[in-house]
Amino acid sequence: MYVPLHEETIETHREITNAIASHDPLRAQDAMYLHLVYNRKRIQLSQK
Fold this sequence. Notes:
About 80% of the residues lie in helices and about 0% in strands. By secondary structure, the protein is mainly α. The longest helix has 22 residues, at about 25-45. The chain is elongated and about 40 Å long.
């Protein structure tokens, strides 16, 4: 499913900040990892 980048960015940043606020470093790490992987893929696709 395609999600506009700005919507994905808001949602993943929310997940990251919620995890940090909950003092859950593993959840924050996972959320950040998924955010980076998703954005890397979007950038790669946009360059084709």
